């Protein structure tokens, strides 16, 4: 008999991080993971690069498969198994085998809900036409890849100019498609401010992406074989043979909610810093769970792999009987479009306004490394400080090679409660092929001294 | 009549940063800079890339020349002018025009000493043979370039495996020379620990550099025309037709010392956080001045462009009547050898031992970005924490593209007095082409939790 029976619902980043952590602490606990998709522990963020062909096999996106978990970690990860009910009182879950359609109860001592997020899907007829895709699970990425292989679509429409939309635009351009990207806002990448987003729009337009901003998707039409052939917006209509819906995601928290577990306003499962839910012996982690925003000082829903992994580690640690706290997030994120790296952390100007924090900003243009060094490129850094405390509260960067990950220094400066002066005077690294003598983030900081 | 007469001795990073800062504050102060070399405000760090031909003109290494300073900033930068005496009592300096050999006194209200550093030159006969070079001023870089153009040396010997030695090895390999690098220590790059240095040695050996470690230069020999043709060490002798001396530098503080200005044990000019020397109305900045080491809590001599620029800004600010403090350095530094980026910050293991700080280390190998993404490479991160406080006190990184500048996050973590846990849990940026989901520095930090 095991000392303890752990059940984990969801076998991706958060769930498997927790499972692995628990196994490292307790060799003889029984750990069972139920995952409704065919895959465990994969890099959802890698899908655009698999679809474009840069990554030559979907299997490369899988960090560890169920066989590896079973053999090397003694973790039983059961794919095609969906938990459809939680009974917190009796500490059991009802599990449906999606291949046999049979359900049965399984009991737990400790339960982790790591059910992830669901992509937004517009409530339109024909949204399930062939050639219309959401990207969420690895399987959905494989579906897009196979559809493109088989049907050779020429005109792609991407709905939503967020991270996924931008990455898919790059991927589909590489496949020589005519790419149109729609956004209902007047600019894309709205986690950055407009003055940064404008540069991204210019870059994408130059690269051949047709941007249709301030347009709302109203209709999807399909041919008699069920293949998408047209979309309409509130402004016009467009022939298309591939539609990627990148309209954001919501926490997949319904299962938790139905069992009485408390949700936040954002519909994410409410957790404390130990990833405990409102119910004893039930933890939540990953996209389905909320994250405390360290600057906004509220719980937020942020669906990112980095956070899911940290959630999973902390949940697993606490489930294993250790003590670990997840303190919160800054909303750090990064992507790239071709050779343009795009990153942000902390509060944008818009968010500072919303949070009623008086702020100052500085935006500078510089060089990603010494301007005289071959292939040096541009970088634009925007810094936001609290007007009163002078502490850095946000940063945004766009630029060429080596630009994006500089956001980590700004994130570190926020965490260290540094002022612009502190950042400007910090001892950062310089050599001509890799930096300017004042790092671009310091050039921005100097403007705010 | 100007309100104030400023004299600055030395027209490179520190001196011209100070001059520019003073000019931004005071439009009508008279600012005169005396520089003994032919150039102002150049990137000494860029010389290896000019010598290799990557940067196609030495002029590109000059940020601003005397004409620009005069016309755009009303700063009179007089090149070929060497200050040979300071009279602090009468507030005047004796300046020698190196073209006419005439000297005259000039008075100041405020004086900045920014005389830089002098390269170590072994006390050997024939050290001044043709084909033997120190690299310090831009002119010395031009001299090397011209010597190579004219004499087409084939066998290059580099004495000293520090930053300059490693960078020059890359440069001379690119010029198809047979490169031998000598170091008197058993390993090169001794600001890093041996376990990191070993990897650099392997990489350099693979690339074709002959490493001769634990060998001391004893003799330089020249032919009858005065061209170097052989060097000897305590172990062997080597035919050579180019010798680069990269044996470190000393503060050029003799002028200050002769006028009674106090030096540190390191022979660098002693300054306080406002860059004030022991004498009223005399400041010092750049390689000739000391820097407070924030972890060792002692004044050190560290000759780096990043520090010189910050020194200059702070000195200029205080000279202009504002208040600004230079708090200190961490010893952050970076270089690259071909595609291997090399960086360090804070204390090495060796330095922690010397400072009697009980420590723990973790060293990890990971991937510079997602392992499945094309052209992903290796990264090795070493972290050092204070055993008692758990605070991060040092870091070393070697690895492929995008590895080196991650040292800035470790530097930020040191400045923010973060523990390994704080660093591991920080919200850093991830996208497969630019990072792993746990950034490599966080993977190292996790080992220390």
Automatic annotation (TrEMBL), chains A, B:
GO MF annotations, alphabetized: CoA-disulfide reductase (NADPH) activity
Superkingdom classification of source: Bacteria
Cofactor names: FAD
EC number: 1.8.1.14
Ranges where the FAD/NAD(P)-binding domain occurs: 5-293
Domain Pyridine nucleotide-disulphide oxidoreductase dimerisation residues, every copy: 333-436
Pfam families: Pyr_redox_2, Pyr_redox_dim
Keywords (A to Z) from UniProt: FAD, Flavoprotein, Oxidoreductase, Redox-active center
UniProt keyword Flavoprotein present: yes
Top-level class of the enzyme under EC nomenclature: oxidoreductase
Protein's name according to its UniProt entry: CoA-disulfide reductase
Origin species: Arthrospiribacter ruber
């Amino acid at each position: 008999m095991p000392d303890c029976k752990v059940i984990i619902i969801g076998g991706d980043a958060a769930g498997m991080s927790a499972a692995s952590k628990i196994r490292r602490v307790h060799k003889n606990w029984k750990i069972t993971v139920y995952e409704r998709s065919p895959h465990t522990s994969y890099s959802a963020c890698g899908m655009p690069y698999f679809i474009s062909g840069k990554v030559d096999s979907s299997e490369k996106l899988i960090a560890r498969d169920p066989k590896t978990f079973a053999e090397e970690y003694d973790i039983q990860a059961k794919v095609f198994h969906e938990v459809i009910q939680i009974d917190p009182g009796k500490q059991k879950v009802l599990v449906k085998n999606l291949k046999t359609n049979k359900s049965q109860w399984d009991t737990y001592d400790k339960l982790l809900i790591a059910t992830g997020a669901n992509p937004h899907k517009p409530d339109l007829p024909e949204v399930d036409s062939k050639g219309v895709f959401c990207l969420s699970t690895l399987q959905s990425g494989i579906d897009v890849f196979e559809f493109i292989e088989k049907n050779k679509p020429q005109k792609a429409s991407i709905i939503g100019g967020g991270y996924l939309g931008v990455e898919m635009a790059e991927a589909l351009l590489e496949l020589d498609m005519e790419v149109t990207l729609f956004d209902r806002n007047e600019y894309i990448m709205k986690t950055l401010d407009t003055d940064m987003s404008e540069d991204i729009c210019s870059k994408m337009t130059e690269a051949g992406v047709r941007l249709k901003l301030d347009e709302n998707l109203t209709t999807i039409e399909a041919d008699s074989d069920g293949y998408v052939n047209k979309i309409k917006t509130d402004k016009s209509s467009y022939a298309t043979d591939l539609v990627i819906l990148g309209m954001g995601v919501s926490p997949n928290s319904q299962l938790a909610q139905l069992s009485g577990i408390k949700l936040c306003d954002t519909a994410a499962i409410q957790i404390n810093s130990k990833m405990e839910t409102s119910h004893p012996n039930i933890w939540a982690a990953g996209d389905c769970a909320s994250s405390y925003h360290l600057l906004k000082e509220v719980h937020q829903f942020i669906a990112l792999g980095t956070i899911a992994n940290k959630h999973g580690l902390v949940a697993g640690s606490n489930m294993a009987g250790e003590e670990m706290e997840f303190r919160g997030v800054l909303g750090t994120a990064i992507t790239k479009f071709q050779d343009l790296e795009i990153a942000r952390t902390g509060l944008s100007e818009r968010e500072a306004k919303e949070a009623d924090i008086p702020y100052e900003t500085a935006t500078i243009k510089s060089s990603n490394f010494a301007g005289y060094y071959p292939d040096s490129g541009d970088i634009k850094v925007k810094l936001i400080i609290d007007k009163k405390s002078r502490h850095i509260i946000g940063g945004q960067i766009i630029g060429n090679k080596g630009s994006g990950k500089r956001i980590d220094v700004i994130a570190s400066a926020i965490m260290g409660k540094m002022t612009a002066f502190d950042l400007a005077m910090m001892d950062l690294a310089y050599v001509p092929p890799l930096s300017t003598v004042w790092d671009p983030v310091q050039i921005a900081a100097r403007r705010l001294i």
